[in-house]
Amino acid sequence: MSKITKGSETPLMKQYNAIKSRYPGALLLFRVGDFYETFGEDAVKASKVLDIVLTKRANGSASHIELAGFPHHSLDTYLPKLVRAGNRVAICDQLEDPKSVKGIVKRGVTELVTPGLSLNDNVLEQKRNNFLAALHYHDDSMGVAFLDLSTGEFMVSQGSEAYVDKLIQGFQPSEIIYSKAKRKDFEARVPNAQSNYSLEDWIFTLDYGYEKLIRHFQTSNLKGFGIEDLKDAIIAAGAILFYLEETEHKEVGHIGQISRIDEQQYVWLDKFTIRNLELIQPALSDGTALIDILDQTETAMGARQLRKWMVLPLKDQSKINTRLDAVEALVAEAEIRESTREHLKQISDVERLASKISTGRVNPRELLLLKKSLSQIALVKKQLVSESVFAPYVDVLNPCEELVKRISETLKDEVPLNTNQGNVIRDGVDDQLDEYRSIAFSGKDFLKGIQEREMERTGIASLKIAYNKVFGYYLEVTNAHKDKVPQEWIRKQTLVNAERYITEELKVYEEKILKAESEIFGIENRLYLDLVSFASNYIEVIQQNARAIASLDCLASFAQLAAQNNYIKPHIHEDPVLDIKQGRHPVIEQNMPPEEEYIPNDVFLDTESQQIMIITGPNMAGKSALLRQTALIALMSQMGSFVPAGYAKVGLIDKVFTRVGASDNLSRGESTFMVEMTETASILNNLSDRSLVLMDEIGRGTSTYDGISIAWSIVEYLHNHPSFKAKTLFATHYHELNELAKDLPRVKNYNVSVKELENKVIFLRKLQEGGSEHSFGIHVAQMAGMPNQVVIRANTILKQLESDKLSEKDKEKLAELPSSQFQLNLFESDPRFEKLLQVLREADINTISPVEALLKLNEMKELLSAK
Predict the structure, then answer these.
(1) Bridge partners, residue 266, by sequence
(2) What contacts 24+ positions apart, CB below 8 Å, involve 9-16?
(3) Domain 6-113 has CATH 3.40.1170.10
(4) Do 56 and 91 contact (CB within 8 A), yes or no?
(5) Per residue in 318-343, pLDDT tens?
(6) Could you write out the DSSP letters of every residue in 5-26?
(7) Residue 567: phi, psi to the nearest 5?
(8) What does DSSP say about strands 175-179 and 132-138: parallel, antiparallel, or unpaired?
(9) Closest CA to 687 of 720, 711, 650, 648
(10) So what's the pLDDT on residue 454?
(11) Is there a common fold for 296-364+375-395+538-565 and 431-529?
């Protein structure tokens, strides 16, 4: 903020500075009349983010300060922009009516909105959780906690740094908090965190965290939540509860439980794998992630659940089959599936509505949405209750008939957005309300009765009753009849052609109407708050409904996907075998042109006969796609989804590792090769017997012999590991690795086939047994539009290198290479060759047509034969 001399501060700025000092890291929206204002550095920042005018105002006798503001009713428009830009925003409101106060109005921060803590619909994304994460660093382990304030989900876990990294990558929190003392650790582990905030070190202690949690959940210990012994996780969770208080989020009754993310229950997907397989985020901005293909959910709750299922695939065969059996039933019964999805489509985000009820932020229209949603939940339960495969989900559904009845009986069928607009409560709910409404809204009939009575009594035929803000209700008499005016009427205004009067009766009636309007607002507000209070008793039940509906929505989405795209039910078993026949890549298949058909492939891996498949083949032939589709089919199976294949037998996998593609991380001083080796080391150090390992082009970031040596050694290590036989797909352009199959019995060679036709390459994209002889990289360069002279020269060099590749060193081969054909030194002494050289220079090889080329050749031939 601009520097201000204390003696020059205005009273308003003194108040602002006092409040601002309590929220130093936040952008302060300061309510002044009908505007939210920002000052100093906050104003400069807000003007840029919001694209609003930056001005200056006097701050007293000696200084000016930057100023930027917007109307208070535009808060919902501007607040999301500030928060999405990574700002913590403190909303400072007027706490008393300015009309009733002399001097400065009392103000205070009513909410501190941060990227990870918001209940504003415009800040939140419907289909994504908005997680706040807390990290606690402790020696060689870490604790992590995740809270979505908008849904009440509170989860914790602890483990190695790699495990916590994986959770951060999967859950993608909007904001991360950590201890100030661990700033260096945090910045080293999470270098690109968009929004983060550090708290004092004393907050990250076990006693403090434990006390916070048992006080919040009103329990004597944490055994019931299964986290009693997770000390690091408890500390992280305690920090989140502290942060809620710090940010003025005091209504947190909807955070009713805390759950453990058990590392043993879910497939290990390290952060590289989540990224490389593009599960929830594409590698390129215009790309397609797996979630984009699989998500055919009808509710926001289902979409959020699907993201969690995707990054936490199951390892329990029974739980996986429970999901698969439900999907199978929905695939078989198209009518039930469509009907269920139609009901789901009409269910609002009741999970977030429950949170709004708890915090007192729910509006009348949202309560009507809740009523409609609960009615649809009753229909879903009725639809599926007879099928036993849906029992785990349907049995917990509670239609909340009493709540539905109470909302129906209390609220009108059509209500305004806010209670202060009135006309919210039904007639017949409250006698006093009905009486006041009668006074306020049947005034025309009452006034007409007074007018007719007075016209008859006075004989003034042109008598009118009207209203204005100055006098209220009045009687108007034309000058022709003013001599008939009764003595008790009080004259208030003289016009050119008439006089205006008031009477005691009109004044009394006017007071009744004004009182009625005021009372109506008070009674409606009281009845509405009673209804919200009644609904708050159902928060836990509504959240339970939300979880069950979310799961059913995911299963119906899987079924819809299977029916549309011809997916099949995978067989899940304990044997360490992965057998996929006619497998397809779920994303590539959907993005192919309509006239093209995806070429399916078979993959078989086990621990006895074929543990490692070495896949060679030309660039662009589909090796990487084959690797990815194998992992995606396995993961989709363990999520509980049908898969794109003709047949799939999936032995339970506990870890999936990928080393697919790499990009330089120059900002951290890491080359492509360094990134590649780091990720590979992570794989080799964390293997298990049920791991699925995908390695693509290992060693390409260094010299050829280094690369071959590293790749060769890795295959040997995976094959000869004393404890684990990890199932591995190893794609490479090093054909020398095919030699490994001779000595290592569980290594088998495969190649992605191509067809050479008239010096062109046709990619068949079909996996077949045996190694490949060529990489066809030069053909790919030609297809990419590389200049012809570069392609021709590359081909010459390749042929020379391949002529005796096993007996001579590269340097010796390169020394034997003929000089570049484009130098033509041989011809320099002959005038004919000078002319020939001129013709060659003038010929544009990239654009010349076949006929023109023949004519040029003929011309060159004539030049050579000329004497």
Answers:
(1) 314
(2) 9/59, 9/60, 10/59, 10/60, 11/103, 11/104, 12/104, 13/39, 13/59, 13/60, 13/65, 15/104, 15/107
(3) yes
(4) no
(5) 999 999 999 999 999 999 999 999 99
(6) -GGG--HHHHHHHHHHHHSTTS
(7) -85, 155
(8) parallel
(9) 720
(10) 86
(11) yes
Instruction: Provide the residue ranges of all domains of the chain, joining segments of one domain with +.
Output: 6-113, 132-265, 296-364+375-395+538-565, 431-529, 571-782, 787-816, 825-865
- pLDDT, one tens digit per residue, over 7-29 is 467 888 889 999 998 888 899 99
Residues 237/258, Cβ–Cβ less than 8 Å: yes
Alpha carbon distance 16, 104 (integer Å): 11
Q: What is the per-residue pLDDT for 492?
A: 86
Contacts within 8 Å (CB) and 24+ apart, 7-11: 7/60, 7/62, 8/59, 8/60, 8/61, 8/62, 8/63, 9/59, 9/60, 10/59, 10/60, 11/103, 11/104
E strands, 654-803, are: 655-659, 691-696, 727-731, 747-757, 760-769
Inter-residue contact 384 to 401 (CB < 8 Å):
no
Torsion of CA 624, 630, 636, 640, to 10 degrees: 180
Side-chain half-sphere of 97: how many Cα atoms within 13 Å? 2
Q: What is the pLDDT of residue 289?
A: 93
Locate all alpha helices (DSSP H) within 349-430, ordered by sequence. Answer: 350-358, 364-384, 391-394, 401-410
**With contact defined as beta carbons under 8 Å apart, do 40 and 17 qualify?**
no
Q: What CATH number belongs to 571-782?
A: 3.40.50.300
Would you state the structure tokens that stand for residue 566, as one six-digit string?
């011809």
Q: Give the torsion sign (CA, 672, 676, 679, 681).
A: negative
**472-478/464-468 β-pairing:** antiparallel
Query: Given this model, what pLDDT does residue 706 score?
Result: 76
Distance CA 363, CA 356 (A): 9
Nearest CA to 489 out of 536, 450, 517, 519 is that of 450
Confirm if 151 and 183 have CB atoms less than 8 A apart. Answer: no
What b/e readout covers 509-520, taking b as 16+ CB neighbours within 10 angstroms? bbeebeebbebb
Reading phi first (left if > 0) and then psi (alpha if -120 to 50, else beta), residue 429 is in alpha
pLDDT at 775: 53
Residue 377 contacts residue 397 (beta carbons within 8 Å): yes
Q: Percentages helix, strand, coil for the chain, rounded to the nearest 5?
A: 50, 20, 35
Which residue carries 């795209």 as its tokens?
Answer: 565
Q: What angle do CA 713, 716, 719 make, to 5 degrees?
A: 150
- CATH architecture for segment(s) 296-364+375-395+538-565: Orthogonal Bundle (1.10)
Q: How many CA atoms lie within 13 A of 503 on its CB side?
A: 16
Is the CB of residue 236 less than 8 Å from the CB of residue 212? no
Q: Are 472 and 510 in contact (CB under 8 A)?
A: yes
Interatomic CA distance for residues 626 and 630, integer angstroms: 6
CA 724/CA 229 separation, integer angstroms: 30
In the numeric block, the tokens 């999805």 are attached to 341
Q: Indicate the class that CATH gives domain 431-529.
A: mainly alpha
Residues 6 or more apart from 140 whose CB is under 8 A from it? 160, 161
List Cα–Cα distances, 605 to 36, 179, 610, 693, in angstroms: 64, 46, 5, 11
Instruction: Tell me which residues of the chain have a pLDDT lower than 70.
Output: 1-8, 58-63, 191-194, 443-444, 618-621, 661-672, 699-705, 754-764, 772-830, 845-847, 849-851, 865-867
pLDDT of amino acid 738: 85
DSSP E strands in 192-236: the ranges are: 196-199
CB 381 within 8 A of CB 397: yes
**Structure-token pair, residue 762:** 């046709």
- Tell whether domain 132-265 is in CATH 3.30.420.110: yes
pLDDT of residue 794: 61
pLDDT, position 655 = 94
